[in-house]
Amino acid sequence: MITQRQIKDLVFTTVAEAQASSPYVGQCYIAETETYYQLNETHGGVVNGQSILSTARGGDVRWVAVAGKIPQRNQAYLAGIL
User: Fold this and answer.
1) Which sequence spans correspond to the domains of the chain?
2) DSSP letter at 66?
3) Buried b (16+ CB within 10 A) or exposed e, 25-46
4) Type and span of the H or E element at 52
5) 20 to 30 A Cα–Cα from 70, which one of 30, 53, 54, 59?
6) pLDDT of residue 14
7) Interatomic CA distance for residues 64 and 1, integer angstroms
8) Tell me: the pLDDT tens digits for 15-50?
9) Degrees (nearest 5) of the Cα angle 59, 76, 20?
10) What is the DSSP secondary-structure string of 2-14?
């Protein structure tokens, strides 16, 4: 069961907060970009600060934009990685 604290932890105010996280949850929302992101542990794509974000876990772990403002500009690219 998801708790209120876990829901709160899934919302970040800025991209920098999300990138500083060590996520083990599947998705988050970032208010700064008005976009939902999905955690992808094998992505390894080039971090661009908008549709693909790094995490504190390093390696190939990325936040990948899936809904909101940013994916509208990246639909073809995202379709190939999710």
Assistant:
1) 4-79
2) E
3) eeebbbeebebbbbbbeebeee
4) strand 52-54
5) 59
6) 92
7) 24
8) 999 889 887 778 889 999 888 888 888 877 788 888
9) 30
10) --HHHHHHTEESS
- 70: phi then psi, degrees, rounded to nearest 5: -65, -45
Residue, of 7 and 53, whose pLDDT is higher: 53
> 37 forms bridges with which residues in the sheet?
28, 65
Question: What are the tokens at 70?
Answer: 């940013």
Q: What is the pLDDT of residues 38-81, one digit of tens each?
A: 888 887 778 888 889 988 888 888 888 888 876 555 555 555 55
Round to whole Å and give the CA distance between 38 and 11.
12
Pairwise CA distance, residues 34 & 5, whole Å? 21
Query: Dihedral of the CA atoms 70, 78, 23, 13 (nearest 10)?
Result: 0
Helix (H, G, I), strand (E, B) or coil at 40: strand
Q: Reduced to 3 states, what is the DSSP secondary structure of residue 38? A: strand
